[in-house]
Amino acid sequence: MSFTESVRNVVKNIPKGKTMTYKEVADAAGNSRAARAVANIMAANYNPEVPCHRVIRTDGELGGYNRGGVEKKREILQAEGAL
Q: Nearest CA to 14 among 28, 30, 31?
């Protein structure tokens, strides 16, 4: 399984109402130093089965969101009870 596939599998399993950081996803996918790669993989994700909005920055900021920007990401996370 490729690192990209591992990342997508990790993110698919983040439950509604929870978040993980890019670094936590990288760790869980098998490469603790690949947080930036995780961000790039999520930026290119348009699969609705991969809830990329649940991945946030280590500093607590939301990071980007390719389906409507940061405000849309905040809105979705609030609706899910994650913020």
A: 28
